[in-house]
Amino acid sequence: MDIDTLNGLFKPKSVAVIGASSTVGKIGHTVVLNLTESKYEGNVYPINPKADEILGFKCYPTIQDVKKPIDLAIITIPAKFVSDTIDECGKAGVKGVAIITSGFAEVGLVDLEKEIVEKAHSYGMRVLGPNIVGILSNSDKFNGSFAPFLPFNGKGSLVSQSGALLIGIDAATYMRGIGFDKLISIGNMSDVNFADTIEFLDNDPNTSCISLYIEGFKDGRRVIDVSRKAKKPIVALKSGVSAHGAAAAASHTGSLAGAAKVYKSAFAQAGIIQAEDLDNLFDRTLALSLQPPLKNDNVLIITNGGGVGVLGTDAAEKYGIPLKFAPEDVQEELKKHMPEFGSAKNPVDLTGMAGNEWYFETVNFSISHKWVQGLVVLYCETAMTDPMGIAQAIKEAVVKSGIKDKPVAVSFVGGERSEKAMHWLVENGIPAYQAPDIALNAMAALREYAIIRESANDEPFTYAKADKKLAMEVINKARSENRNALTEIEAKEIFSAYGMPVTKVKLSTSEEEAVKFAEEIGFPVVMKIVSPDILHKSDAGGVKVNITDEKGVREAYKEIMKNAKAYKADANIHGIVIQEMAPWGTEVILGSVNDPTFGPTLMFGLGGIFVEVMKDVTFKVAPFSAKQAESMLTEIKAAPILAGTRGEKPRDRKMLANTICLYANMIVDLKDEISESDANPVLVYEEGSGLKVADARIILKKK
Ligand code: COA
């Protein structure tokens, strides 16, 4: 991505408005008016064949008549005229176009949108939109949109897929004093998308936190890549999280992989912090744009009221940064600034008698103490205190300490005076919120950011000894027979080619062969039907376990064949596999889907009811690091079972994490081939005893 080209779009030095209008109320009029009202200092060229002048600017019949350098053309003419206009812009040497006009891919006119982008690219132009509100930038005094005014000035920048919502956000955050430098509407993302804007904003000196409102990514993998590399915090609200494609999924994993779960995992991998709702997005943006990350969870709460202190304590636990009692030396010092009946533990309750001085002294001491890594200052408005005085005391105490690498968040509960004081704090770089739990949630976001950053630079795992040639031979054979569902034997051959331990298995086509193979593999054995027409073998009576001798093999062979025919008379039966009966182990499931947004994605969970009923599974977009594979083991609710509960020995988690890495490597390497796959069950033994993939399934992509 060429950042200079994006500079032309987002920080233009000259702008043409195509469809500029003298008619008040038209979008083409509003955009020109907004450029004036935001005191834009670049050149403005209204384009309209019917006007000589609009809002004091000389008007040109076409963009080619301007004959001066133009960075950005904002297009506000009806959809049917846009394509021709792109040619004119290209010929006029414009760097980028922002198409406000609606009526393209969102109403089914996909080809028209594609044509516009192709045309623009042929002239070296980039396209923002269509179907956008425009671009707003405080640092460039640039309101190139039909949103009413520039956002409240701040250090976050927000990118929104929804235009109307962006307008709402502009006004709503203004009222609350939550500041942004830029608001960017990206609409249909025909060309410039989330990944491009993240890259641009990461290099923008006026942006310290990147905030996203997402309905869906077009190229999720690139978003992960650029976000992982970003130097700034990214916080995102994802809407539209209903399950997708579940009904059509042929494998277990496919039916469990809902968009919400995969997005959540992808955000974590990308180092993107999630927001729960719009308010949470603003609150988290405020903290992340103004404060440093929280290095560990030693958070101290200072308050003048027990109630807000308890609310803060509850919220700290809820958001994953539970409070600890402050060390003795901290408590001793704090006691000097409170009455006998105060509390120096944590929350530090200065009591309702606390005035500016006590706040100043306790904040100044605490933030400077090595144990304290983050400070939340709470205050309930009292008649004896002036909220602005308290706010100033907090700010002065932080400044005087000289500490810049520990975050501070504030909540004042009170009326108008408290509101004003909180606005003042925000303007002076300290995030302030109306309720204690919001301040703690903001602090938790700063902790999440610190944790996420630590793992974002881990190298993805690759398995050097993978035998892709062998895997492709198996796949090509199935394709030559017009099969997309591989047999268990074929699937296991591929798993084995990628280093995963699978149970021994052989295909018999007669009773005699079955006996021979069972003896070779060693008793006890499992026998299973092999048929591309019978995917759910147990349901068809096609599985017999714990067969201990020749007689058992012969009986099972006959019965399985009978059951299979009864289940589906015309089933194409390849034979019956004889499989090593692996000893009992904890059953886990590994699986993969080819997510429409993120590509190969791996799922992990405990087998049996954990997956069937509880749907206790976790996802990661492959590839990922060995450390991230380890973290998958702790992400499921049933994690304590693997760690060993009720006298059970811990399972071989090291081997399991390693197998997850090998599996991820397989689905990335074969991403053009594998649509879905499962290793289910994988039997995991005691620590040091490894695991075995007992059954495997691979479904190929249709070609
Ligand atoms: N070059 C220059 N000016 C042109 C032109 C061209 N090729 N074609 C038309 N114009 C002029 C028109 O004459 C008109 O000027 P006038 O007021 O002086 O007559 C002006 O451009 C606008 O055209 P008009 O036909 O009046 O359209 P409109 O203003 O009613 O609607 C849009 C245009 C783009 C606003 C409308 O089509 C649209 O897409 N609206 C939705 C936008 C939106 O909501 N986007 C964000 C979604 S979240």
UniProtKB/TrEMBL annotation:
PROSITE patterns: ATP_GRASP. GO terms for molecular function: acetate-CoA ligase (ADP-forming) activity; ATP binding; metal ion binding; transferase activity. InterPro entries: Acyl-CoA_Synth/Transferase, ATP-grasp, ATP_grasp_subdomain_1, CoA-bd, Ligase_CoA_dom, NAD(P)-bd_dom_sf, Succ_CoA_lig_flav_dom, Succinyl-CoA_synth-like. It holds the Pfam family ATP-grasp_5. It comes from the Bacteria. Residues 492-528 form the ATP-grasp domain. The keyword Membrane does not apply. Keywords: ATP-binding, Ligase, Nucleotide-binding, Transferase. The keyword Transferase applies. In the N-terminal section; belongs to the acetate CoA ligase alpha subunit family. This is Acetyltransferase.
